[in-house]
Design brief:
By secondary structure, this protein is mainly alpha-helical. The protein contains 25 helices and 13 strands. The protein has a domain of 219 residues. It has a three-stranded antiparallel β-sheet. Strands 2-11 form a two-stranded antiparallel sheet. The N terminus is likely disordered.
Length: 747
């Protein structure tokens, strides 16, 4: 039976309220399904714009109720201990080498993340208690109830100690070096941008219950289609290469994505063990074996690929204490810093960073052949199950081994750091290890920011749009919150999956293809980089192989082969992105169009001016309403905006995020009159650098490279000696970073 919004509210209210009754705590076996009635963001999107009452006009809630609600939340979460013990005894866990293992690697929580998640979940359950025990008493409906709950502060409760505002930071505001964890960048708000803090919202969340339940349909006509059903219907596998954009565009997008956003997946709260949401063969787990943090993706009975499977694993994202230190809906955690600071190379906590450093002459650790340092836990950090185990690398981010080109790019930047550190040591032998490390890091981050904003963003978003968004302009404001937007991290960044090819073309010095690597055979298996010459081949591939167009067409290597391991079939990237958007309560595509100043559509047919007609017809078979279309699906279906690779909606979300990331950063490379600002001479040298030069300097034997590696060279097959083509140059002719302006007279 399907309910309209008002009927559903009444039906759920009846389940929790009877005349003269009081609230009863749900039994432990029902924790996985427990949710309070939908008390505010259940209605249609147009209700978001209504005038709200101020907190002063809302009813008063006795402080003792807040303390009781927190105790209730602690009780609910505490009951998970028994369930998790039962699951451990039943051996319900992720199997090594499986696709869920790959997902676990990608979302592995760092130390401290799960404790913050536990406290955030207590706050969510406490918020449910407040709503259930006060909103009916005060005759508050949906939105008003939400306003009441979110007006209540955690101050004075046991949860207040976990608020961002309670963090006591000692900041040296005159230091020329940014912190490793992102704190102390903003003098007024030193916690802003810190790792393991919440994403911010561009639009109010739309959870199924207003708090944390998976998003539901806005239509009374039908529920949301399953995420796998959406993928199987829309994501055909076809070759549609872009004429100009190279794989470097895709790979840089993933690199930037790792830097700005890392959403961890939940583990068991009390044991830290992995959570499995489906049986190893894709069967459904019995309800008693399903952890409350599971949201398995149903597989249609007629699925063309996952035949015989009933579900695909999905573990819900780790949450963080709300930045406003109030009761209210869940916010997901970003365990990366919120800055463009190469945190995926240097780490996001001091402990991680220390474990990556050589502690000599400012260098980062490397392994044989100047490759990345080796992980001490290869069977955990990589999908390696058979002996002899191949290489598994470590870096500042658990996703470093995800696929060969990403690992190659990490390698190039670790080498770049060490190249800069060695040169600085030659110029300034009196500098100690710490000074050399921090100065090298500051310079390398500057190179990276310059390439991102001045070379990559104009290719992705269009030169004109980039300038309109001020992406080339030094414009710092301490009032801009750098927190990465949930919609950017959860949806917009993942356009890159559609640009991936099924096969990586290994390219020789003359740009001829020597051999190929099938993508699904190398997820989290980076040992291929240990073969002589392989790093150079992968760097050339990024600069040579054309990326696929940005659209809903995805290679089956990521729609059924993601993290495949040794088991044939893997995960489905598109399904995971759609499911994660619903997990995070992201509003629909239509809402984000309106937020970007684009026309709101009243029905799916109206999308025909933006989206190919065949796709519009497919959307009509999936969604009952245009307001139900998932953000990722609608934005990926759009035709590219003028001069851009992505459509108007994703161009808006990416452009706004990059603009705020730049404006909020007191340490941004070209900002003047700040602690650690570069001199004009130093800045001139930084602006000479390019990703082409980084490839040349940090490959093993790369001699030629086109000047802009984000655009395909105009000739292929004769580049080893043909320098007449303006797009190609000898590496020796490409401007290199001159570090002589950093020479300091010893005292």
């Amino acid at each position: 039976m399907k309910y309209g919004g008002a009927v559903l509210v009444a039906a759920l209210c009846a389940a929790f309220w009877t005349s003269g009754s009081t609230f009863r705590m749900p039994a432990a076996e029902h924790l996985a399904n427990y949710a309070s009635w939908p008390f505010w963001v259940f209605g249609r999107p147009h209700r978001l714009g209504r005038q709200h009452q101020t907190a002063a006009e809302l009813p008063k809630v006795d402080p003792e109720v807040l303390h009781t609600s927190v105790k209730f939340g602690e009780n609910v979460i505490g009951r998970l201990a028994r369930l998790e013990k039962t699951l451990a005894n039943a051996d319900v866990r992720v199997r090594p080498g499986s696709a869920p293992h790959g997902q676990l690697i990608a979302g592995n929580p760092v130390d401290g993340a799960l404790e913050r998640h536990r406290q955030a979940q207590v706050a969510v359950r406490a918020s449910q208690f407040i709503a259930d025990n006060n909103c009916k008493r005060f005759d508050l409906k949906e939105r008003r109830c939400g306003e009441l709950v979110n007006s209540l502060s955690l101050d004075g409760t046991d949860l207040s100690a976990h608020c961002d505002t309670a963090v006591d930071l000692e900041c040296n505001t005159t230091s020329p070096f940014r912190s490793i964890d992102g704190s102390c960048n903003n003098r007024r708000h030193p916690v802003w941008g810190r790792s393991m803090t919440a994403y911010q919202r561009m639009l109010r969340s739309q959870y199924g219950d207003g708090l944390h339940q998976m998003k539901k349909s806005q239509s009374a006509a039908a529920p949301l289609p399953g995420a796998r059903e959406v993928s199987a219907t829309l994501a055909a596998d076809k070759e549609r290469p872009d004429r100009e954009a190279t794989m470097a565009v895709m790979q840089w997008a993933q690199f930037v994505g790792l830097d700005l956003a890392h959403t961890p997946s939940a583990k068991m709260v009390f044991t830290g063990s992995s959570i499995a949401c489906c049986k190893p063969d894709g069967g459904l787990l019995p309800p008693r074996s399903l952890h409350p943090f599971c949201a398995p993706i149903p597989v249609p009975a007629d699925d063309p690929v996952f035949k015989g499977r009933r579900c695909l694993d999905y573990v819900r994202s780790v949450t963080a204490p709300r930045p406003d230190c109030k009761f209210g809906p869940a916010e997901q955690m970003n365990q990366a810093t919120h800055w463009l600071d190469l945190s995926m190379v240097y780490g996001t906590t001091d402990d991680i960073s220390r474990g990556l450093r050589a502690h000599e002459n400012g260098l980062l650790q490397t392994s044989d052949g100047s490759l990345l340092a080796l992980s001490p836990e290869p069977t955990t950090d990589c999908q390696l199950t058979t002996k002899p185990l191949g290489a598994c690398f470590k870096s500042g981010d658990s996703r470093v081994n995800e696929q060969p080109m990403l690992t190659a790019l990490h390698t190039a930047w670790v080498r770049e750091h060490n190249r800069v550190a060695n040169t600085l040591y030659a110029l300034n032998p009196h500098w100690n290890d710490e000074r050399l490390f921090q100065e090298a890091r500051r310079i390398v981050v500057a190179e990276y920011q310059h390439i991102t904003f001045d070379h990559w963003a104009p290719v992705l978003l269009g030169e004109l749009y980039s300038r309109q968004m001020g992406l080339h302009k030094a414009d710092y404001s301490e009032n801009v919150d750098p927190a990465v937007r949930n919609s950017f991290a959860t949806a917009a960044l993942h356009f890159l999956y559609s640009m991936m090819p099924g096969n990586i073309q290994l390219t020789e010095s003359d740009r001829r293809v020597n051999s190929t690597l099938r993508l699904r055979e190398h997820f989290n298996k980076p040992g291929v980089l240990q073969k002589p010459g392989r790093l150079d081949q992968l760097l050339r591939t990024m600069a040579t192989q054309n990326a696929q167009k940005v659209d809903l067409i995805h290679t089956e290597e990521v729609t059924s082969g993601l993290f495949a391991g040794n088991l044939g079939l893997g995960a489905d990237a598109l399904s995971l992105v759609v499911q994660r958007g619903r997990d995070h309560g992201l509003p629909g595509y239509n809402d984000f169009r309106a937020a970007c100043g684009l026309p709101r559509m009243s029905c799916i047919d109206e999308l025909a001016d933006l989206i190919p007609k065949a796709v519009v017809n497919q959307l009509k078979t999936l969604y009952a309403s245009v307001n139900d279309v998932d953000l990722f699906v609608g934005a990926m279906a759009e035709r590219p905006a003028d001069g851009a690779l992505v459509g108007p909606t994703f161009r808006c979300l990416i452009g706004r995020q990059l603009s705020d990331t730049r404006r909020a950063d007191r340490y941004f490379f070209d900002l003047q009159d700040q602690a650690g600002s570069f001199t004009p001479e130093q800045l001139t040298n930084i602006r000479k650098t390019s990703l082409a030069r980084v490839f040349c300097s940090n490959g093993d034997q790369i001699k030629f490279m086109q000047r802009n590696v984000f655009l395909a060279p105009r000739t292929k097959g004769s580049l080893a000696g043909d320098t007449q083509d303006a797009s190609v140059a000898r590496c020796s002719d490409l401007p290199d970073l001159d570090l002589s302006p950093w020479r300091e007279q010893s005292v």
